[in-house]
Amino acid sequence: MKKQLLLAGLSLVLSTATFAQKKNVTDAILLMRKYNPMGDVAANKKTVTEAKNFIDLAAANAETAEDLKMHLYRGEIYYCLNEIGNIESATSGAPQDLSSVNGNKAVAMASFKKVLDDPKKAWTTDAQSFINSRVDFMFNQGIIAYNAKKYVDAANAFMASNEIKSYLGESFKDAEVNTSLAANYAVEDFLAAKKYDEALSFAQGISEKMPQNIDILISIVNINLQKGDVAATETYINKALALDPLNKQLYYVLGTSYMDKQENDKAITALQKAIEIDPIYNEALYQLGALYYNLAVEKKNASIEYDYKNPKFTQLENEGNEYFKLALVPLEKYYLQDSTNKTILEILFKTNTKLGNIEKGKFYKDKLTLLSNKDNTTGYPQPPYGTPDNTTKSEAAGVKSISYTYNCYQNKFVIITFTLIGNDTKWEKSIVESTPCQ
Known about the structure:
Layout: H1 2-32, H2 41-60, H3 68-92, H4 98-117, H5 124-147, H6 151-165, H7 173-192, H8 196-209, H9 214-227, H10 230-243, H11 248-260, H12 264-277, H13 282-303, H14 311-337, H15 342-354, H16 358-376, E1 390-396, E2 399-409, E3 412-421, E4 428-436
Antiparallel strand pairs: 1-2, 2-3, 3-4
Helix pairs in contact: 1-2, 1-3, 2-3, 3-4, 5-6, 6-7, 7-8, 7-9, 8-9, 9-10, 10-11, 11-12, 12-13, 13-14, 14-15, 15-16
């Protein structure tokens, strides 16, 4: 009989201990029913802190450590610690302790994960509803702010929506995209007002919270370009390239930034990388060709300082010619994509001529002349025999005329003149030919 009484007493002790630990969960739940994020900050903070104390006791005891209901509320409580901390920070202006924020989030995520991984899904819907209701609220706040063109507020709301979703171990793609979109508009507004420092501070704040977002990094690149901070531009371009190593525009901007710093070898490498990614990337072809051409001219100009018999003169001349040859490669590729760019035609004409490629130089010269004549002869009959050697126009007393001169067309010197008198609509054509050209 005594033995039976002893066992009964032991059972009573065990039941009482288990009840005590479950009571900690219950007390935490009851406290959280008082929590209202829209209510008084101090009261909410006190409520969540007290609830945390109860749930920590339950989490530390073997009887309730694996209880999924405990983990549901543990996740909610630790989330709310950060939620009310964020509200308090926004109200007071004092920054949050990041180590505490990160610690709270880690605990919340660990507990939510246990709930979500439960094969029976007993409390899964509750966890999802708790988080997703807050996700939706912040996302809708972002939409409202965006439509009101309050882009800073919109970006922060969308970013918060994505951050809240991450407590379930998930990302919210729409919120990420909208954060980038709103942030870019916000940066544009800052730049339009020439508020460069505010733009940079805002964009860097977004980037710190979304370090893998390349659009935000590109915004920071643009801000630094506007500021003229080449070193910072280079830093953020390299960060962006680490995320997207096949982004030709980034290599292009990096190359032109190096050109501004006169770090020509680095500029050449970056522009060549852009062209390697896209062999017909005309902007990069143009800049690389122009860079080589300018380097060639610098060498040629430097050679003038020496007597032509001086070995240094020959060295600089040869180096200049090598740069001219290098310039031809990207510029001729550019020409194949756009044969109407007069600057390119001018450089190709001069470069080939300097290198002794007379016929090739003449080819580009003729193309340039033809384009110039077209520009100068809009509204007039066009030259009938290809590119003329000379074009003259006159307009006086109601008479318009244009003459095209060919120094040697079919072995003859030829002048073709078109004349329009008064209100006539038909041009009169006259031809003058002379003895065979030499």
